[in-house]
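Quick question: who can interpret this fold?

. . .
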Amino acid sequence: MAAVEENGPSGTDVEVQWLPLPDVAELLGVQLREVRGMLAEQRLLAVRRLPGAVWTVPSTFFIEAAEGEGPQPVPGLRGTLIQLADAGMNSEEALAWLHTRDEQLGGTPISVLRTGAVHSVRRAAQVLAW
């Protein structure tokens, strides 16, 4: 895999590995068209880090599944992405919010989602819509 180490989303100081879409497909053990379907369904979010660059997904969006299964998208990510879009955030803004420390949550929203605390993250995101 050709993961790219870079800074996190704009406005954050988080280190993130950015995975090109073919690498996401390899990681998940699916075909590229299925990854594109996940993007269309808002199960994942991809951005171009530079103009004309390839579409990439942050590695923070994946967790190891149960024993014997491969990685999978973070549970609760889809609903959170939809909620952020409904609050008027574009992809870059949603990525930045997910990777910016929130004192109320005690960490970044994506790190809290990775622990399974979906409702806490959704409550924090709900405030953004007001």
Summary: The helical segments are 21-28, 32-40, 77-86, 91-98, 109-114, 118-126.
